[in-house]
Write a structure and sequence with these properties.
Order of helices and strands: EHEHEHEEEHHHH
Strand content: 5-15%
Largest sheet: 4 strands, parallel
CATH superfamily: Metal-dependent hydrolases
Number of strands: 6
């Protein structure tokens, strides 16, 4: 904090995360923290471990003008949108969250949701199907097979109810990130 660095509290134990949040809250004006690729504990039913944060922890991160990246590994667009919305609501008014992909070969990408209908190469959807030589990947069949297919995934999210509001929220991420980093650097002792 004295060096103005952004601190990612993912992968901390419950006790360590709570202690770090308390330390950030004790700083003059508070100190923003970051959760890079996570979600609300129990929001999707299955993730109840301390690896995910509680709604209260996200509320505290939001009150500090902290940032959140919403984890996506193994989540289809419907579940990811639910996770994103739950985090934003927990963080409070004005909060912005990003896309915490974190599927670096050790984790699975996002599968297609049942009924996904991402369109390729139309005037309304100029998105091109990902290809490499003779191989091509249709998101509707394989989901996100590699990072180059993240636009396909976001197109699917956009087609869902609430998807446009999420994309609008994410579009504010650049300024929010700048403001957060500015606060970290200028709030340092």
């Amino acid at each position: 904090m004295k060096k103005g660095m952004l601190i990612n509290i993912d992968h901390m134990s419950q006790a360590s995360a709570n202690a770090t949040i308390a330390l950030a809250q004790s700083q003059r004006g508070g100190y923003p923290l970051n959760s890079g690729h996570n979600g609300v504990r129990g929001a999707l039913g299955s993730d109840t471990s301390e690896r995910s944060f509680t709604r209260q922890q996200y509320q505290q991160i939001g009150a500090l003008h902290g940032m959140a990246g919403i984890g996506s590994a193994k989540l289809n667009s419907t579940l990811w949108l639910l996770n994103y919305t739950t985090v934003i609501q927990a963080m409070g008014p004005g909060a912005v969250a990003g896309f915490g992909t974190d599927f670096d070969g050790m984790e699975f990408g996002m599968p297609p949701r049942l009924g996904s209908a991402v369109q390729y190469g139309t005037q309304a959807f100029p998105l091109q199907m990902s290809s490499d030589g003779n191989k091509s990947w249709d998101y509707n069949k394989v989901g996100v097979a590699h990072y180059g297919m993240l636009p396909d995934f976001l197109q699917d999210v956009l087609s869902l109810q609430g998807g446009a509001a999420l994309i609008s929220n994410m579009n504010n991420g650049g300024q929010y990130f700048y403001d957060t980093w500015y606060m970290a650097e200028n709030g340092s002792q």
